[in-house]
Amino acid sequence: MTGAASTDRARPLPERVRAQLAQAGSATVANMLLRRGLRNVIMNGVRPLSADQPPLVGPAYTLRFIPAREDLDTLANYGSSGNLHRRAMEECPPGAVLVIDAFGCTTAASMGDMMAARLRHRGVSGVVTDGGYRDSAAVRETGLPCYQRDNAPRATPIALHPVALDEPVGCGGVAVYPGDVVLGDGDGVAVIPGELVAEVAAEAADAAAYEEFAAREIQRGRSLFGLFPATPESRREYDTWVAAGRPGRE
């Protein structure tokens, strides 16, 4: 739906699910999706803007760019209240992740620090683009978790023309539909189909908890065989460890 917000598709994510995804991480979630036949879920070449930013979790709200054209993409038009790039900053729902399809272009900025500050103030969870940001240091200072391909200091209208809000897009080679859930961390950005998110979150959190047990056993000198991946026997050991209060846990 070009230019119209669809808040019903960017429904708030339950805090329990959000916490489970953040605990599990993008790599573990990707494995859970692989079990369901979904292979292309991690964005290529998209990295966190800051190494110490918190995990990013939320339903996707999308903005799509195409290449700019000189008769349409002027600074005057960019300043219009109807400009979809500017509207995205006001219409992305609180708690959502703004996913910007810049078709891999870093010739011009997908966003700058003023826009990041506005999104932060409005309670948006963060931004992901396969393009880049201008004023990257200032974007970091807003505290908004952001992911990009590379810095892009030139003004947006030089290379990017916004054409759609809240429609299916491609970002980092991954399809993103409104209502999908985006999970970003130090490993990358994963996209989870909305209808699978609750079960994937629970399964991924359980897998992450088991990996804590497995890592502890490996540090004690135990072999990977019969431990990781988990076997029925090692899962029983894990359950016993959990029931005992996770002894030895730091």
TrEMBL record:
Protein name as catalogued: Putative 4-hydroxy-4-methyl-2-oxoglutarate aldolase
Species of the source: Streptomyces prasinus
Enzyme nomenclature, EC number: 4.1.1.112, 4.1.3.17
GO annotation terms (biological process): methylation
Lineage per the UniProt record: Bacteria, Bacillati, Actinomycetota, Actinomycetes, Kitasatosporales
Subunit structure: Homotrimer.
Principal EC category: lyase
Function text: Catalyzes the aldol cleavage of 4-hydroxy-4-methyl-2-oxoglutarate (HMG) into 2 molecules of pyruvate. Also contains a secondary oxaloacetate (OAA) decarboxylase activity due to the common pyruvate enolate transition state formed following C-C bond cleavage in the retro-aldol and decarboxylation reactions.
Listed cofactors: a divalent metal cation
Gene3D superfamilies: Ribonuclease E inhibitor RraA/RraA-like
